[in-house]
Amino acid sequence: MYDNTDPRARLAAATAKPTNGPFDAASLGHYDREPPQQVEPLARTWLTRGQNFLVACSETQPGAVLARTAQPDEYMALLPDAATVVEVTTPAGTERIAGHSLVVLPPGDSSLRMVKGGMLWRILTTASADLAASCGNAAAYATPHRHVAPAVSWPAPPGGFKVRAYSLDVPASPDRFGRIFRCTTLMVNCLYGWPGKRDPRKMSPHHHDDFEQGSLALEGAFTHHLRWPWTTDMTKWRADEHHECGSPSVCVIPPPAIHTTQAVGAGMNTLVDVFCPPRADFSATSGWVLNAGDYPAP
Predict the structure, then answer these.
(1) pLDDT tens for each residue of 151-194
(2) Which superkingdom does the taxonomy of this entry point to (predicted)?
(3) Which of 11, 35, 48, 294 has CA 20 to 30 A from 131's CA?
(4) Selection from 212, 185, 150, 159 nearest residue 298 by Cα
(5) Burial of 7 by CB count in 10 Å (0-12 exposed, 13-18 middle, 19+ buried)?
């Protein structure tokens, strides 16, 4: 259910599939008030997972290096601050990438060296077992969540696996929802910042049948509202949840919860949404995926 000014109103209406509980709760990482899971001399990293993806948010100083060895699949690095500069190294060489960008890194060995420090968000699949085990909410996924479909990778890019950097300096358009990028494993929507509080008369309650949504708060404050279906078995009902989150933070929204997020900060409020695998409906909407030419749909 979307306001008629929301580009998602043009998507095919989702029809809830019959489903039974028990249902899973939202999972949260409050990085503004919780200790990091990893502490290094030049970086502090918070880790939160969903069933198929995980988020590593690092507060870095110049010279910090975040490396992956024998990485099993592609992953992404988000550099929201334009002042940040990173050197990306793979067996193919080293390249310098400016901030306010999204970087796709190939499988295998890679490293990110922070030339100028700042916030670095890495988004990976839970095939990165070492990071998945270190997540602050790892216990919530000791048993797989029954309503989340398994992740299946999308086709390999025709140009082969390599470092691909995409600037976030993309003008907004009323015909497009945010700034959407995908790779073989993930889809990220870098939403435009919302100045001030969201109009409570223009919310967007909707649900997903079989995939989670990770909502990353880069700046500002938000309330994530969630409501679960009622089933014939009342013992499986869940009470509504309203999670107040500052920034940085992550909220992993489970299916099939009806959800909507309300910006409540007085200044700029900025979210990034994460999906694993990429969403078919967003991919099928012409012009929405900005790097569709690099990554074919199945």
Answers:
(1) 999 999 999 999 999 999 999 999 999 999 999 999 999 999 99
(2) Bacteria
(3) 294
(4) 185
(5) middle
- The CA R_g of the chain, rounded to the nearest whole Å, is 18
Kindly state the tokens that stand for 165. 């950097």
91 closest CA partner among 103, 108, 105, 115: 108
* Alpha-carbon gap, residue 210 to 146, rounded angstroms: 9
Which amino acid, residue 274?
A: V
Structure tokens, 282: 């967003």
CB-based contact 51:39 (threshold 8 Å): no
C-alpha distances out from residue 73 to 116, 181, 184, 185, 262, Å: 27, 16, 8, 7, 33
Enumerate the β-bridge partners of residue 58: 45, 120
Best CA proximity match to 149, nearest among 276, 54, 17, 25: 276
Residue extents of the structural domains in the chain: 7-284
Rounded to whole angstroms, how far apart are CA atoms 167 and 169? Answer: 5
204: DSSP letter: -
CATH class for domain 7-284? mainly beta
Residue type at 116 in one-letter notation = K
